[in-house]
Amino acid sequence: MTAPLDRIRFPVLSGDIGGTNARFALTANETAKTERIPTIATTDFATIDDAIEAAIGDRPPGERPKTAILALAGPITGDRVKITNNDWAAEPKKMIARFGMTDVILLNDFEALSLSLPGLGPGDVDAIGGGEARPEGARVVVGPGTGLGTGALIHAGGRWVPIPGEGGHVDLGPVSPRDFEIWPNLEQTFGRMSVETLVCGSGMLRLYRGICATNGVEATLANEADVAARGLAGDDPQAVETLDLFATYLGRYAGDLALIFSAWGGVYLAGGISTRIAPALKSGAFREAFLAKEPHRHLMERMATAIIIKEDAALAGIGDFARAPSRFGVELNGRWWQA
After folding, report:
1. 20 marked among binding-site residues
2. CA 249-252-254 angle, 5° bins
3. SUPFAM superfamilies, from UniProt (predicted)?
4. Is 76 assigned to a binding site?
5. One pLDDT digit (tens) per residue for the chain, 339 residues
6. Is position 102 annotated in a ligand binding site?
7. CA-CA distance, 311 to 215, in Å (whole number)?
């Protein structure tokens, strides 16, 4: 077992490393304002260590980070952690040796996002439908992006305990008559249909192509950004249906998680796709799919759903943890490396 972490050594380098982008911030001490470092494209550097070197720059020794807390897309296992959806791998022992750090802590990316949830204010979220979040209720965060991230946060023993996982890879099946029409024309991933197969950036394009094939029309849109734009504009019927079903499938999944965790603290949607297609998510399809959990619809109606609009929420969650680690019950066994 790893000893409890009561205080973290500053300066702290926070990192939110996804499949496409790496976001970094540096905090000098517990009371200092966090310095946001410009976003780095993961394709611009061969390794995560090279990206960290660029993020730190030529700072003098006293300003260089003593601790790195990095949130990675994917499960945290072993001394070499492969990052999902890009070619990087994090090796904390090598980071400590290269950068002279004392500590490296690795978290799942949506675990870091879940750490931000207690600190979100009314101006940090955009509500979808009704429901009310209880202050100490369990919370869930879901985010379609390069993949589909999922995390939960439970309040127990006076602390917030994050629950990381790879829930986006659970199975997704057809429910409505329209689903059964479309399903034979959908491209699978890894020989199966997971939620992430359809509810992510590339999944939106798969869904659009499946709808076009079902309708017997040519799929003229080449990427998910065009599908989202045309769907929001309302000038392409297939793109419009794509956004409607994307919201529906995301709502079903979010509702399943809300039932599993009894998410009285709310279910929160994160990431660029959620904010970009917010009008589609607020049009009714997402919330109705979330609620349609008979015989427990009456329970679902009392649960809040919202889109996180706070910028860099995962970095904020890491910052909250760094400043007051004892407030959180973060599991550090096998995830905390020391010099």
Report:
1. yes
2. 105
3. Actin-like ATPase domain
4. no
5. 354 577 899 999 999 998 789 999 999 999 999 999 999 999 999 999 999 999 999 999 999 999 999 999 878 989 999 987 789 999 999 999 999 999 999 999 899 999 999 999 999 999 999 999 999 999 999 999 888 999 999 999 999 999 988 899 999 999 999 999 999 999 999 999 999 999 999 999 999 999 999 999 999 999 999 999 999 999 999 999 999 999 999 999 999 999 999 999 999 999 889 999 999 999 999 999 999 999 999 999 999 999 999 999 999 999 999 999 999 999 999 999 999
6. no
7. 39
> Tokens in use for 103?
């500590």
Domains in the chain, ordered, with CATH? 12-113+312-338 (3.30.420.40), 121-309 (3.40.367.20)
In sequence order, what are the residues at sequence separation of 6 or more whose Cβ sits closer than 8 angstroms to the Cβ of residue 38? none
146 labeled binding residue: no
pTM above the 0.85 mark? yes
Residue with tokens 């399903």: 183
165 is in an annotated binding site: no
